[in-house]
Each structure stands twice: as structure tokens, then as C-alpha cells.
Design a protein that fits this description.
By secondary structure, the protein is an alpha+beta fold. It has 2 domains: 9-40; 41-99, SH3 type barrels (Roll). 39% of the residues lie in helices and 24% in strands. It has 2 helices and 5 strands. It has helices spanning 5-39, 88-99, and strands at 46-49, 54-61, 64-70, 73-78, 82-85. Strands 4-3-2-1-5 form a 5-stranded antiparallel β-sheet, covered by helices on one side. The longest helix has 35 residues, at 5-39.
Length: 119
């Protein structure tokens, strides 16, 4: 009985093709976009590192980038650690979040406010 070798390997070939289009190709595209973004960085750009640190690009040294994380405070990072460039709208959202007051401590009220009770 002649088994068709193409019929035997067709599911495996389809699996490899699906694997390529669902996993490998999108990952390569993301890597290329990240490399392009990192190579197009310029001083003054607001960025977010892969660890979530917001900073401003100050300068470059070989494969490193100098980031200003606070006025007068500069740190050296690898270009690969830059996760994304922050747009002005995202930057404004960050500043609004920083303006929210933080509670000084736990709420010390006992919840039994007699002035709000009605007789």
C-alpha cells in the first residue's frame, strides 16, 4: 500500500508555516522597530526605559545613552534599555499623575461622626 509522503509531512509543514507567521515574523518586526527607534534617538527626547524610568536623553557615548532622570542627575544606560519614546500627551499625563497628593498617613477617623447622624 503506497503511503503518500507528502500527506504524512503536510501537517508538520503547515505547523511550521503557522508558527512562523504567528510567532517569528511579528517578533522580528518588533525587534526592527525597536532598533530603528533606538538609532533615531536625539538629545532632548523624553523616553521610558524598559524598567519604567522616565528620563530625557542628554547625550551619547558609543552604545550608551546619557539620561537625565532629575534636574542635574544624569545616568548612563545601554541604548537597548530604552523601551519607547514618550509623546507629549503621555508626558502631560505623567506630570498630572505626579501632581496628585499622597496621603500623609492612615485614616485615623473612627468612622463614627456624630455630626452626620440624624435623631
Amino acid at each position: 500500500m503506497g503511503n503518500n509522503p507528502l500527506g504524512t509531512f503536510l501537517p508538520l509543514i503547515l505547523l511550521v508555516v503557522v508558527f512562523y507567521f504567528l510567532l517569528i515574523r511579528p517578533q522580528r518586526k518588533r525587534q526592527q522597530e525597536a532598533l530603528q527607534m533606538q538609532s533615531s534617538l536625539a538629545p532632548g527626547a523624553r523616553v521610558v526605559t524598559t524598567t519604567g524610568l522616565f528620563a530625557t536623553v542628554v547625550g551619547f557615548e558609543d552604545d550608551d545613552v546619557l539620561l537625565e532622570i532629575a534636574p542635574g542627575v544624569q545616568t548612563k544606560w545601554l541604548k537597548g534599555a530604552i523601551g519607547r519614546v514618550v509623546t507629549p500627551t503621555e508626558d502631560a499625563t505623567e506630570e498630572l499623575a505626579d501632581d496628585n497628593p499622597v496621603a500623609d498617613g492612615p485614616d485615623t477617623t473612627d468612622g463614627d461622626d456624630s455630626s452626620t447622624k440624624q435623631s
